[in-house]
Amino acid sequence: MAILIYLFWFSFLTFFSFIFLKKNRNPKSKLQPPPGPPSFPIIGNLHLLQGLPYRCFHQLSLKYGPVMLLRLGFVPTVVVSSREAAEEVLKTNDLETCSRPTFAGPDKLLNGSIDITFAQYNESWKENRKVAMMELLNIKKVQSFRYIREEEMDFLVKKVSESALQQSPVDLTKTFFFITASIMCRSALGQNLHEREDKIEELVIETALTLDCFRFSDSFPCRLGWFLDWLFQMNKRLNKVCKKLDAFCQLVIDEHLKPDGKKTRDPPAHIVAGLFNMIEKHGHRDSSKRNMDQIKAVLVVKPYIIIYDLFLGGIDNGAITLIWVMAELMRNPRVMRKAQDEIRTILGSKRERITEEDIDKVEYVKLIIKESFRLHPPLPLLVRKTRSHVKIQGYDIPPDTSIMINIWKIARDPKHWESPEDFIPERFIDSSIYYKGQNFELLPFGSGRRICPGIAMAIPILELGLLNLLYFFDWRLPDGMIDQGVDMEENGTISVGKKRPLLLVPRIWTIIQGYDVPAKTQIFINAYAIARDPKYWEKPDEFNPDRFLDCSIDYKGLKFELIPFGSGRRICPGMATAISIMELGLLNLLYFFDWGLPEKDEGEEILTGNEDAL
Ligand code: HEM
Known about the structure:
It is built from 21 helices and 13 strands. By secondary structure, it is α+β, with helices and mostly antiparallel strands.
């Protein structure tokens, strides 16, 4: 079927190519375009993109250089693959290159891309971004959500502990998506996912996967593209996701608008409230002038688009990053061991909880996250569109040209990175390279006017998550997967995550008197020796019940110098019955009888230690 579709499409386009060929040639153009591979009419260089786009671009850049021109269908696209060229785009020419090309998926989802992420550079984008910063993403707001992040991490530890006790694998992909979704939904929307039955994190994954699909209209932004999308039912799945997302957004808005709406402990001034306040200020809620339908139309659109940005930007990228970090740590046991040693030494062995105050104490965790961003940026291609003519590395690039910056390739460029393919967090010790858009060899959050506004929100989630996972647990691959190791296959075109779920078996960190005790070790506790230890007992070998007069030592498992019934989870459940039998028995034996030793010889035997005679 796939071959038939491909053949149909190819012959269809080739036929049309001859008709369009003449029209597309412009011999009078003075443009000096960047070099690039020869292209077919109509399809251009689309046939060269087989596999993950950033890897294909990397291969092509080896031949055509760090600034090359591709034709992706009808869309001229300049691919930038060097730090210097990236700096020229994102810093020198930021204003001229800070628009975005139109993508059919988001365009449909958002009724014309009037959100933040996919919006053209215009007043509406500026306003939306300002509101998002004001109401949700500035440092002060982010700090006010600290208790939410800490509570959610406590929940994470509890869930993982349950699997650890059963020694069963945890699907970390699902777990991380749930945790990031839960944090984002509580912080931004006042929605507590623990109280909801629908699986929002699954909707996030589904939305991301659906948007990531190839669409003809991305490369042929004309009727031909729409027709082909319609013909091959490319939007069927998207329509379904739109409906689900719509229902969720509507629910958030309805709950917000209800005067007696659900009260939660979480901050009421979340971003939805902020947007409504903004609309109110602008007079859109003046019901005397507008009818209710109009008002609702305005009210629905803004929160909806911001909710959408949070879904993709906030949840997807955060979860993807944590998954990559854990996968790399499993592949690099040296780094895992070092991180755990450092965290556990600094935080000590008696912690029941880790808070954000602990984050700055452990530098190595920050280096690990940086290194993971370098090797696995969740968005490996930054996508821009020129607003006017720009010159990049001496090449002229006309307005309305898409620019893709291959940050994946730049972060592995041997010109800037020693052993670029290896996971070495130590490379950042004493290095001034940071990921906030100033150093163009490391751009996981982009740079310039379109830099990710969610950095302050994203980083504490990653750091706190990793601290918890490495402090409380040791990790191993599930039985049967140990020989294969961790697979690192990638998936996706816009955001790129690990293709297969990451399954790992946790073990609760066990430390006894400073000694690390590995999983599945047998432990014998010598209760006999402890109960005769002269450190705790005077004349320990003497039978002297009086030692317990006015003494708080009991045998119920709370005083560890006397544990005849054991202690903890496995304490003897028959203790109470046994004690009643013994007490009643002894009472009877002592009340009704006097006792003496048997005849002399046998008594002597007992006194000399022959207990069988008793
Ligand atoms: C590990 C986590 C994250 C990564 C790696 C990441 C990465 C990025 C990147 C590379 C961009 C494009 C920047 C550019 O074009 O120069 C971006 C844009 C954006 N991100 Fe993030 N992001 C993350 C988390 C978040 C969070 C937590 C939020 C919000 C809560 C968020 C919201 C956005 C928005 C709204 C944009 C669009 C900005 C614009 O076009 O003006 N991101 N992000």
